[in-house]
Structures are given as C-alpha cells and as structure tokens.
C-alpha cells in the first residue's frame, strides 16, 4: 500500500514537472500498432523494438492490426523522401499516435522518441495528448565504440543478446553508428569472461547493427612494427582482409596513428591507401579515416603535409585523445574537403582526454580511472564547445561505466540545445521507471557534484547518498536488479565511504603529528610509541563499515547483472587500473604507510638528538620557514601560486591550462594493502608522503607556471621541488622569469631537490617559475609534472 501511494504521488509530481497533467494523457493500454505496407527489414526491426520494450515495462504486448475505428492506435508510417534524413514527426491525433519517419532510420528514431515519451507502469500505457514533434538530427554522426575485448571492464562478458539490447537502447536515444574492435589490438588475446570468440562476436555485432540499419565502423590500429617492410604490409593486408570478409556490414574504418601503433605517417598513409582498396573488395562503399594520435611534433607536421595533397582514397580525419594540437587547430590545418570526426574519451576520469577537473585525490586514488562516471553537465559543456567543428562523434568507451555519458552524447548529437536535465529525465523514466523520472535524474546530477572540489568540504556527498538510499528503500525487487540503478547506488555509497575515510584518516594523521611534536618533551621513542597506534586506527578501528559492506554487495550485484569486474581476484578483472576499484576501496588516504617506514628507521640506535631532529623534519615537512612559501600542487586549496590558465570551461583537455591529477599508482609494490581486496600490481609508494600522490601538470609544450608576489627584493631565495608523475622518464627543466635557467633538462627523482634562484629574478619582488618538458615528446604529452614546491628564503 505504501509503495502504491508513493508511486502515485511520484507520477503526479513527474507529470507536473514535465508539464503534463495526468488527465491529459491518452490511454494506450489497449492500443493497436499499425504497420506500414511492405515494411523493410529495418522497419520491421523498429516495430519489434516498440512492441518488446513496451511489454518489458508493462507486461502488455501491443498487437499489430488495422487502424482502429474508435480505439487507440499507434500508426507507423513512411514520410516523403525529400525530408531530412533520419528525421521524423510524432503527433497525437484524437486516439491515434502517428509516428512518421522520413526513412527507415527515421522510423526507428521516431519510435525511440515515442518510447522515451510514454508513461509506462505495470499493465498501463499512456502518452501526453499534446505530444507534437517534428525533428531531424543536427549532426550526421552519433555513435559509440563498443569493443569486445578483455580491457574494457564488463564488455568482455557480454553475450550477443546483451549486445543487441545495449545497441537497441542506444538507438532509442538517437545513436546511428557503432564502432567495433578487431580481434588483434593492444589487448590480451583472450579473456576468462568471453562467451564467444572475438571474431564471432564481431560478426554478430555487425549483423545486429545491420538489422537495425546502423552504421558499422571498425577502430583498426596498425599494430605491426615496421610498415616500411613489404612483407609486413603483405601480412597486414591479409589479416585485415580476413576480418573484412567475415563481417556482414562495414561502413567505415578508422585507424589511429598511435595509442597503439606509432607508425611514421608516410608509411602509415601508404599502408592505408592499400587497405582502402582491400576494404572495398568486400564492402565497396566503405570509407577510410585516420586519426593523428600520439604523433610527435615532426610526425604531425609530416602527416599534415601529406593530407594537404588531398589523397583521393582518404574520406576524413578523426580527432581523438593524445593529439598534440587542439580540435579547432586541426580543423584549420586540414583541407576543407575532409570532414572531421570527433573521437572523445567519455569513459576515463583521469589521465585522459577530458579528466575530471579539480578531482579530489581521495577519489582519484580509490575510484580510479574507469569508475562509474556520470558527468552530464561537463559532457554537455565539452560537446557544445568542440562539436561545431565536426560532423559528429563516435565516442571512445571502454565499458558500461560511462553509460550516462553515452546517452548524453547521442541526445546532444541530435539536438545540441536540448536541456541536460530533460535528457536525464527521459533516461531515468525509460531505464529506471516512471516513478524515478525526476528523482533519479537529480541523483545523477548530484553524483557529478560529488566530485566538485575538496571532498572533505563537500557536505553534499552524504546528502547524495541519503537521496539514493531513499530510492533504494522504495525500490521493488525488480528495480533493484536493474544494473543502471545498481551503478548509481554503487557510486553514491563509494563516494560517501571514501569521504568518511578521508575525514577520519586526515584527523588521525593530525593527532599522530601532535604526538610527534611532543617528541622533545616526551622523548622520541615515547612519541613514536604513542603516534603509531593512532595512525593504525584506520585499520584497527575502521570507519563507516556499513557503507563499505554495501559497496561490496553492489559490486557482486553488478558482476551478476552486467558483468562488471570490480575486483581482480574475485571477478577476474584484467587489472586494478581497469575499473577494478574494489581493490582500492581501502587505499590509505593519509601518509600512514610512509610514516610507519620512517618510524622503523627512527627506532634504530641513532641517538636521541638525531632521532628528535628527524622527527622535527617530519612534523615540519610543509614548513618553508620565515619568509618562505609552500604549495602542495595536487590540492586545490593549497596551491595559491599556481597559474591555472583557461581551465575546464574553455579548455577541457587542459591543452593550455595546468591540471591537478593523481600521480602514477605503480612506483613501488613493497606495501600492498592486505585483506580480501588486496592490490595486485599496484604499489603504495612508501618513497614519499601523501602529498606525492597528486600533482599539477601541463601537456606537450605548455609550461607549468607559478607566480609569486611580495618577495623581499634584498633576499636570496632557493627552490625545493619534488618531481613526481606517471612519466618518470620524461626530463624536465626549470626557468625563472623566462630568462634565467634554474636547472637544465634533468631526470626526475623521487626525492626533494634544491636549486638556487638567481637574485636578478627576485630583485623586483616578484618571481615567475616555469617548467617545461623535452620538446620531442609524443604519446599522451605528460611529463611536465610537479608535486610539491617550497620557495625558501636563505
């Protein structure tokens, strides 16, 4: 009784929010579906979608028949050939709902719009009587990469029926292209989760797309070592041709220049000319596209010179991650005849093309790069900033963790001006249920806000969990089995648990430091004896264990429902860094492990004077001394001198801005976390304190800069700096005021390093420090990375 009342109230609230009163809905519970004469295979598939998806949500199977004289009906019909491709018209006329598609895809997308608009509950179907829409897509290309391979967390466990359902779901929101991945890529040859071989699944997915009338792309990396060798080219032509020949449908092939691959452009382009002819032996209308990813500056220039000759075999250019110039710059640099396709990374939250801005280190280290990541407002911002330079996008995805983002990109590809909250309401109504139309949509927005700024300061994180717990409490068993519902719950509990631990472990470290500061009075060994148990309370007296237990339960539920492999050991995920964030659920959020190693050293027979001196160095780690300055560059509230640049709204790739991110997770494996979800292949870096786990960085040739004002013109200064980051082999140099070399290009070292600042640089009371990496970098462009800096007055 309680649930029925709640659903009724929710439905009324939703109707009011969406501008539709319940009294104005047309009842379609007994409607008949009227099918066009001589419907094509793709049109029949679209009608099948309508009937089956309504039945799943209502237990009502709409019959096909002639237009009813007095009853309700859904009339599916073809429009005129002159109308815009893929467009449709929907109108409620009396007791009939007419869906008029401009072509076969128009019928599919029109039915998708109708499904998103229907009010469906058990044994009841209705639609707003004033539903009127005439629309066609703004962007011709609206797709997503769905790669059946071991690396993506979950995809490798999907059966062909699961793939068909997901492709269908995407089509309902306007997706018109799916990009596949061939059996050989930068991945393992097999997965313990594969229900079918890679080639058999690829064939099946190509056939599914053809049934729905969707374009089939292949992301095909050129993986061999030397394409200047004719034998290598001959091998590649045979291998690729073997794949092309087996697929029922291929519309286009996209070849990345790198990540993986890394072939010099003149050899790559020569290969692709031959591969284009090879492709068209089996798919005569298929086209070839190329992405200049991971090129060095010289290789990019070489590529652009080749493209300016306008090769006839080349159809278009793709802008993807690890391209060293911006999307607008690439558009300006290539001939107008070539369309530019966007290949945006919507799946990774850090160390990626569009990292979460100012992401708290606690989340970055625990939840990781491939966490469930609804980012609706940020995705819309990226789309609207960059998409006008393109003909559309096929996104880069490595799992269903980015599910919400996919649907945002598809919907915005149709209508860039669509309201984000309205898109989320359609998503929530269609996938979660009528009663969740607004509540779940608002919950997704709240999950995005959870990742804004300091986690400790963000009290909304616990409020977000409370909101999802209310939905969880009201949900029936069927709704709790919904994997999209489970994903949102998992994130809400994980966020709240991580914030709770961060607050707790930060306080424990502060208490332990207070004991250490008493070392002079108490004696060094006594101070250590009192401080260490305080730090260990993170393990001996852990906090928020009920939330932790719920995270583990939801991890199991997601493996069962959608094959998400959130643990390496338990679910045989490929790696901790590939979405297995149950392994990092209890990742230390303070300097506990580093401090415990220091404590072991301090207990050695070094003498009390030396022991107290070393303890003072630990407790005074961040103290720059009188007249000095300290910045922890990975903490947004502890970096007053960092020059930020344009920032996310204007520069979401941080090509011209400094960016805060976590350092690499694999410095040292001597201290793995113990327990049921122990780290595999990921170390906890005892080499430094927690401040070394995050950094500020810039990409490629952009300098990382810090600006100081109010210095003493008469004083002499030196800088102490810690260079940390994933690209430890990248050399880095430092200049003062753009003209004084503080140090030349040097290798990074996991320790503080000190350098003199020329007095001429600070004589005016100000100082600009600028770091750059070597100019011959390629790949992701990371290497200009700094963790901590002290400006010390001598």
Structure description:
- The chain is α/β, with parallel strands linked by helices.
- The chain is built from 24 helices and 27 strands.
- An 8-stranded parallel sheet has the order 15-14-13-12-11-10-9-16. It has a 5-stranded mixed sheet with strand order 2-3-5-4-8, with helices on one face. Strands 17-27-21-24 form a 4-stranded antiparallel sheet, with no helix packed on it.
- Helix 6 (230-246) packs parallel to helix 7 (265-282) and helix 14 runs antiparallel to helix 15.
- The protein starts with a helix and ends with a strand.
Tags for this model:
794 residues; alpha/beta; eight-stranded parallel sheet; five-stranded mixed sheet; 24 helices; 17% strand; globular; disordered N terminus
Q: Shape, please?
A: globular
Major beta-sheet overview:
8 strands, parallel
Overall mean confidence score, pLDDT: 92
The largest beta-sheet arranges its strands as: 15-14-13-12-11-10-9-16
In short:
With 794 residues, the protein is an alpha/beta fold.
Layout of helices and strands:
Elements: H1 2-17, E1 25-27, E2 32-34, H2 41-58, E3 73-78, E4 88-93, E5 96-101, H3 104-117, E6 119-121, E7 124-128, E8 132-135, E9 141-145, H4 160-172, E10 177-180, H5 198-212, E11 215-219, H6 230-246, E12 252-256, H7 265-282, E13 287-291, H8 297-308, E14 314-319, H9 327-333, E15 340-342, H10 361-366, H11 376-386, E16 392-395, H12 403-414, H13 420-431, H14 437-450, H15 460-474, H16 477-480, H17 483-517, H18 519-522, H19 524-540, H20 545-562, H21 568-571, H22 592-602, H23 608-619, E17 629-632, E18 659-662, E19 694-699, E20 704-708, E21 717-722, E22 732-736, E23 740-746, E24 753-756, H24 759-762, E25 767-773, E26 782-786, E27 788-793
Parallel strand pairs: 2-3, 3-5, 9-10, 9-16, 10-11, 11-12, 12-13, 13-14, 14-15
Antiparallel strand pairs: 1-7, 4-5, 4-8, 6-7, 17-27, 18-19, 19-26, 20-25, 21-24, 21-27, 22-23, 22-25
Helix pairs in contact: 2-3, 4-5, 6-7, 11-12, 12-13, 13-14, 14-15, 14-17, 15-17, 17-19, 17-20, 19-22
